[in-house]
Specification:
Layout (H helix, E strand, L loop, with lengths): L1 E5 L5 E7 L2 H4 L5 H14 L59 H17 L3 E4 L9 H10 L7 E5 L4 H7 L5 E5 L5 H6 L2 E5 H11 L2
Parallel strand pairs: 1-3, 3-6, 4-5, 4-6
Antiparallel strand pairs: 1-2
Length: about 210
């Protein structure tokens, strides 16, 4: 598949980029995408939740009332889960939510999403650009020139660029990532993927390993 490279004004240039069919032209594996996205979202969970069970509650150990003759159920401790302020039954404890996913499956998942985006014309190739200083307005102008308003945009760079990254930091529907840092969730969550021209070679190098 060949895509025309656009400049920051949104116009087509004379350059074209050929996308590797082994990365951008495979049959998408939806289950691989599901497993990888599930793993990524699970990894984001802190797992620091903790509830006090009856052995963690500080309360008097004195028997509340006599064993028999009150007409009510027997009760021996204020820490009983049935009482207000008592311990919780089977409450949550700190745990690790990480899920192991094989490297090959992660690669397959990313290839699947990239192929789906390419098939649905949701990939744009942009000429390499840089900012002298962080400027959110300039980044918004580029997005407007490419006529992709009202869509979640992910710009993929070949290498880290501090000024471009800082320009996108306070935008909710536009993010900037390095080719080496992009994951399946970022790809799935994007309405449109904008690849800087030099990032295509980097992506293909990573996913061909």
């Amino acid at each position: 598949m060949e895509l025309v490279v656009k400049d920051i004004t949104g116009k087509d240039t004379d350059k074209k980029v050929t996308l590797d069919d082994t990365i951008f032209g495979i049959e998408p594996n939806k289950h691989a995408v599901y497993l990888d996205v599930k793993s990524i979202l699970a990894h984001k969970r802190q797992g620091t939740h903790s509830a006090k069970e009856r052995n963690s509650i500080t309360a008097s150990t004195k028997k509340i009332k006599r064993q028999k003759g009150t007409g009510g159920a027997r009760a021996g401790s204020l820490r009983n889960p049935l009482f207000r302020g008592g311990g919780r039954v089977f409450g949550p404890k700190p745990r690790d939510y990480n899920q192991k996913v094989n490297k090959k499956l992660k690669v397959l998942a990313r290839k699947s999403v990239l192929s789906d985006k390419a098939k649905n014309n949701k990939i744009v190739i942009l000429q390499d650009f840089d900012f002298e200083a962080p400027k959110t307005k300039k980044l918004l102008e580029i997005r407007d020139n490419l006529k992709i308003d009202n869509k979640k945009v992910v710009i993929v760079l070949a290498n880290s660029n501090k000024n471009v990254y800082l320009s996108s930091r306070n935008l909710q529907d536009l993010s900037v990532v390095k080719a080496s840092d992009i994951n399946t969730y970022d790809l799935v969550n994007a309405g449109v993927l904008i690849f800087v021209e030099s990032s295509i070679e980097e992506i293909e190098k990573i996913l061909k390993k």
